[in-house]
Design a protein that fits this description.
binds 1,4-dihydronicotinamide adenine dinucleotide; Rossmann fold; alpha/beta; N-(1-d-carboxylethyl)-l-norvaline Dehydrogenase, domain 2; globular; 8 strands; single chain
Length: 386
């Protein structure tokens, strides 16, 4: 018998998750309170599948089969026979809690309930339910059908067997699954913060402009996109709130401090690609500045941002947010980093990482540059992460 999956929320994420499940032979019900959202979701999926047929990635029958596996509905009652419900509605604790209470009252006792939240506490959402043992986070990345990584987030109450079951369902859907602690940003959205934050700081110090920082990270680090073009792609509003959620959730750890430059852009509506302008101008015929291709400067920028990324990865390991392997896999698969950060740290040498952070700390007297105790311990022991 095929798995009965319900997805609540027919926005970008809900529709993508539904496509993944339906493409893997699950019967899917997508529920949304907005009829317009349901209509958009359906027509968008049809055009995505048509494109896949044109590109010969799937054939016409497969496309029809995927569509026939999905039922778009505005009736919450339709989730009642589900084996698994994934919530992907608006990012608001109170609204999610109300929905989870309602979900719990509709489904059978053995149905697994999951949230796709990016920044809220999974335990907080589960706290309103009578049986929190069947609740967990299943965090997909956008666009869900293309991004292989999924973070699963158990709470202290989540049943271990159900967690295993969910991992095997997701792996069956072709996903790479990592397990993260229920903390703000989980793995990827936490460890990636310095990619943006340190780039912004370098710009604020007048060391280099946006184009030069992007060039340095691509040229010397092998990153597919530079921090500023990536922030413009993600949206400065979305990226800023992700930083703020991690900063607030870590008791204002200076490492994750949001940038005033980014806030200003957000407040001015300079959100990036979606608004036509952010760090760069996306309007027709716009001329954007060329990078200043000074290799010595470029290497310095890359080394500084990488040292901060590595420190964040070590911090995640030190806080038991995930295992060494899951941290490295998550960054390679979730944000396409060219290497796992802990592996990269070993390759460069932990000594030089600590030296770089110490230099920045004494120069700026800013606690964001304090080397993580685990990194220092490894250096003292002459150790490595692998
Ligand atoms: P969205 O705004 O595109 O879609 C949300 C949908 O939920 C809307 O269609 C809305 O009508 C519907 N909705 C709101 N309240 C509802 C309710 N009470 N009952 C039924 N439907 C309701 O949002 P998006 O981007 O798809 O995000 C959804 C969730 O996924 C959020 O929790 C977000 O943090 C998370 N997420 C988003 C990612 C992204 O890149 N956009 C990545 C990973 C997770």
């Amino acid at each position: 018998m095929s798995l009965l999956v319900s997805v609540i929320g027919a926005g970008a994420m809900g529709s993508g998750i539904a496509q993944v499940a339906a493409s893997n032979d699950s019967a899917v019900t997508i529920v949304d309170s907005s009829p317009q959202a349901l209509e958009n979701s359906q027509s968008k999926l049809k055009s995505i599948l048509n494109r896949l047929v044109e590109k010969r990635k799937i054939n016409k029958e497969e496309s029809q089969h995927i569509i026939s596996n999905i039922n778009w509905s505005s009736e919450m009652n339709e989730i009642s026979n589900s084996n698994l419900v994934i919530e992907a509605i608006v990012e608001n604790m109170e609204i999610k809690q109300i929905l989870f209470s309602q979900m719990e009252s509709l489904v059978s006792d053995d149905c697994i309930l999951a949230t796709n939240t990016s920044s809220l506490s999974v335990a907080g959402i589960a706290s309103v339910c009578n049986n929190p043992s069947r609740i967990m986070g299943i965090h997909f990345f956008n666009p869900a059908p293309l991004m292989k990584l999924v973070e699963v987030i158990p709470t202290n109450e989540t049943d271990g067997d159900l967690l295993k079951e969910v991992k095997s369902i997701l792996e069956g859907w072709g996903k790479t699954v990592v397990t993260a602690k229920d903390t703000p940003g989980f793995i990827v959205n936490r460890v990636a913060r310095p990619f943006y934050g340190e780039a912004l700081k370098i710009y604020e110090e007048g060391i280099a402009d946006f184009a030069t920082v992007d060039w340095a990270m691509k040229k010397f680090g092998g990153f597919r996109m530079g921090p500023f073009e990536l922030m413009d792609y993600i949206g400065n509003d979305v990226n800023y709130s992700a930083t703020k959620a991690v900063y607030d959730g870590t008791n204002h750890d200076p490492r994750y401090k949001p940038s005033a430059t980014q806030k200003k852009l957000m407040d001015e509506g300079l959100l990036g690609r979606k608004s036509g302008k952010g760090y760069f101008d996306y309007s027709e015929n716009a001329v954007n500045p060329e990078p200043q291709k000074n290799e010595e400067l470029g290497r310095k920028i890359f080394k500084r941002i990488l040292a901060m990324l590595i420190n964040a990865a070590v911090d995640a390991l030190n806080e038991s947010i995930a295992t060494r392997d899951d941290i490295d896999t998550a960054m390679k698969t979730g944000v396409n980093y060219p290497k796992g950060l802990l592996k990269w740290a070993d390759e460069i040498g932990l000594n030089s990482q600590v030296a770089q952070l110490k230099e920045l700390h004494s120069k700026f007297e800013d606690d964001r540059y304090i080397a993580n105790p685990l990194l220092i311990k490894k250096v003292e022991e002459n150790g490595t992460f692998y």
